[in-house]
Amino acid sequence: LGNTVLHILVLQPNKTFACHMYSLILSYDKSKEGPGSLELIPNNEGLSPFKLAGVEGNTVMFQYLMQKRKQNLWSFGPLSTVLYDITEIDSWAEDQSFLELIVSTKKREARQILDLTPVKELVSLKWNMYGRPYFCFLALFYILYMVCFTMCCVYRPLKPRTGNRTSSRDNTIYVQKMLQESYVAYEDELRLVGELITVIGAVVILILEIPDILRVGAAKYFGQTILGGPFHIIVITYACMILVTMVMRLTSTTGEVVPMSFALVLGWCNVMYFARGFQMLGPFTIMIQKMIFGDLMRFCWLMAVVILGFASAFYIIFQTENPENLGQFYNYPMSLFTTFELFLTIIDGPANYDVDLPFMYSVVYFAFAIIATLLMLNLLIAMMGDTHWRVAHEQDELWRAQVVATTVMLERKLPRCLWPRSGICGREFGLGDRWYLRIEDRVDPNKHKMMRYTEAFKAQDRDNYDKGSEKLETNGDTLCKKELSALSLSLSRSTSRTSSHRGWEILRRNT
Question: What is the rounded CA–CA span in Å between residue 131 and residue 138?
Fold first, then answer.
């Protein structure tokens, strides 16, 4: 019952009342230390009161709980050293870490905790010492891997075509080799090494991704933008396309260009995932994801309806015409593709001035240009501009959340020997088996003096202005409104200059 009340207090809107009641309940806890403590008992979702405060974005309760966990090591004048308990915060030995919970929640208030002590210092320590070097090395390794795969695709086994052409529009001159013909020369053996590296890389990607999907859940794993959800879909689809290409090569099945081309596009697009390691480029990946899976997905439904309707109209108009005079609409699939290009203004309206085009083509194309180019494209630009404005105001905290998510991901996947635990064990200071983070704090006394002097200046300015206003009100019957406003303005300026001069003199003497 006490643990349930603690969880309820974390969710209370009145933060001050919740903190006092939290301390009152813990004062009656007989087992304040150890696994039987009320603070360490999780709820049905596996969250302790401390983790629940982070998930809900309750910064007041989080700071209150951290103040209870800290240990003052020593202090000397303005310098002090504090040990913060990071047992539940550090993701090194936690199955459901505090950092991962914060970046996976959809509440913006939770991301503000990443800028508080000691979470900010812990993340900075992990990222600068291990996260950034490993992530940059991983990015370089992936780019080299993609270059190897691209070279294998460029020099894939082809042979001249032997069959006759069946259509005047057929311009195929090379076809795919059979398996027995693909690995004969020395160049083929060299390409085989690159293909083996590509296949092994695809298998490693699946081995690394599938356990996380089973642990977190597909909806949460692919749906969180901060965690790189869309990029996980891209890299898993890429690995599957590689395996499909391998099966088609081994069975000598024609058409391997389809999965191979998909793999090339997806593999190189996944390079954008590594932009999150840089503060300048990281927020742009968030913008791209939100625009594609937010604005563009909604816009595609409207675009599909417009393209389908006008492509059908164009095909019907040119169904009775000679395709050699205007071949952009010679069949229905080509009509869809041409209309799509016209929609995005990639090409101009097809025209042949040597022949007479149908009159309805001009009418339909006029309506299409008004609806598609002027109306819908400007609507898409406005939607993307609004998304860019919203993300730009959150780019700093979004980048911090990306860094945390990347750090947790690397910490889980890398061996323990490459990523030692951060912090100091409490046994060195007689504090048990808990782990602590040492933070040195400096209290600047001049800062507090400056604040007091500023408040004194403001109060003195207000008093001088009130006295001058009272004097003007007593003589207000003999002055006109214009003289009153001019006199009050000059008086306020003179008093502010005098008080400001006096304030700066005090600051110079104290300095």
Answer: 10
Token pair 């563009």 in the structure block, residue: 296
Asked whether the beta carbons of 120 and 114 are under 8 A apart, the reply is: yes
Sign of CA dihedral 252, 257, 258, 261: positive
CB 272, CB 253: distance < 8 Å: no
Strands (E), 361-492: 424-425, 435-442
pLDDT over threshold 60, residue 480:
no
Q: Nearest Cα to 88, choosing from 57, 55, 58, 111?
A: 55
pLDDT tens column, 416-469: 777 777 777 767 777 777 777 777 766 655 555 555 555 555 555 555 545 544
* 8 A C-beta contact, residue 345 and residue 373: yes
Running DSSP on this structure, what letter comes out for residue 59?
A: H
> What per-residue confidence (pLDDT) applies to 497?
46
Q: Considering the chain, what is the average pLDDT of its residues? A: 75
CATH match of 289-409 with 1.10.3470 = no
Using alpha carbons, list the distances in angstroms from residue 276 to 71, 132, 196, 280, 395: 35, 10, 29, 9, 11
Question: Contact 226/398 with Cβ under 8 angstroms?
Answer: yes
| Largest distance between two CA atoms of the chain | 112
Q: Quick one: average pLDDT of 15-24?
A: 60
Q: Report the C-alpha gap between 132 and 452 in whole angstroms.
A: 42
Q: Contact 99/404 with Cβ under 8 angstroms? A: yes
267 vs 270, 276, 364, 441, CA distance in Å?
A: 5, 17, 40, 46
Of 52-61, 122-131, 255-264, highest mean pLDDT: 255-264
3-state secondary structure 294-305: HHHHHHHHHHHH
Q: What is the DSSP string of 101-148?
A: HHHHSS-HHHHGGGGSTTHHHHHHHHIIIIIHHHHHHHHHHHHHHHHH
212 SS3 class? helix
Backbone angles phi, psi at 170, to 5 degrees: -80, 120
Taking the model in full, what pTM does it have?
0.70
Q: Where are the domains of the chain?
A: 5-115+423-445, 125-276, 289-409
